[in-house]
Design goal:
Number of helices: 1
Radius of gyration: 29 Å
Largest sheet: 7 strands, mixed
Keywords: Membrane, Transmembrane, Transmembrane helix
CATH topology of the largest domain: S-adenosyl-L-methionine-dependent methyltransferases
CATH class of the largest domain: Mainly Beta
Number of strands: 17
Structural class: mainly beta
Order of helices and strands: EEEEHEEEEEEEEEEEEE
Length: 221
């Protein structure tokens, strides 16, 4: 038992801190634990635990909102626009092939937005790995990043004069050859939407989206 004497100016009061007696039997299979805690100390411990338990859920919730929340809604006229963006597979190792799939949806009607122009920039360690305009008449854009023997990044596709952007090849995909995700570390994927519904008319204010992914065992966040 440990005690401490406190002088409050009027006299002395004694506070029992902790008394713990731990005993094992001869086989070591059973445990006899006794603790003698003073009432003031119990109150202190209860207060500490209550504060700790209150803080922990808040930290988890904040982290989930930062890393796992979906992109915010955008409003175009009477439509609420949702960005749907995925990386396949979800967990990658540096140097593996990766596929980026994206499209916009009208949340009110659940219809896919067509004639979308995407400006996509991918950066790593302050180096721009790729920055290009792409267009999808159907709305959905699929980019296949192939890790192969290319020493530099080559973006495939057909250049469309009307939209001033690359459109997918007959397979329906944009093929990128080279070391796009070859280095470990954090990658930033920034997407701007410059046209919807019509190939000729640019949005007055582009829709912007920002994604972060880690390429040590990479997964989207």
């Amino acid at each position: 038992m440990y005690t401490a004497s406190l002088d409050d100016g009027k006299g002395h009061s004694e506070l029992t801190l902790v008394y713990i007696d731990i005993k094992f039997d001869q086989t070591g299979d059973s445990l006899d634990l006794r603790a003698n805690l003073s009432k003031p100390l119990i109150a202190i411990l209860v207060g500490f635990l209550s504060t700790f338990l209150a803080i922990v859920p808040i930290c988890d919730y904040t982290s989930a909102q930062h890393h796992g929340a979906p992109p915010p809604l955008a409003t175009l006229g009477d439509r609420n626009i949702v960005m749907n963006f995925t990386i396949e597979p979800k967990n990658l190792i540096a140097g593996q092939d990766a596929q980026l799939i994206m499209h916009l949806t009208d949340q009110n009607s659940d219809e896919k937005i067509q004639h979308v122009t995407y400006r996509i920039a991918i950066t790593n360690q302050n180096n721009t790995k790729m920055s290009e305009f792409f267009h999808s008449h159907a709305g959905e854009l699929v980019i296949l990043a192939k890790s192969n023997g290319y020493s530099h990044i080559v973006v495939g596709g057909t250049f469309d004069v009307l939209t001033n952007a690359l459109v997918p090849d007959p397979s329906g995909k944009i093929i990128i050859n080279g070391p796009l995700f070859s280095e470990p570390g954090i990658y930033y994927i920034d997407i701007e939407i410059t046209t919807v519904d019509n190939d000729k008319t640019d949005l007055q204010t582009p829709l912007t989206y920002h994604f972060v992914t880690n390429n040590s065992n990479m997964s989207i966040s």
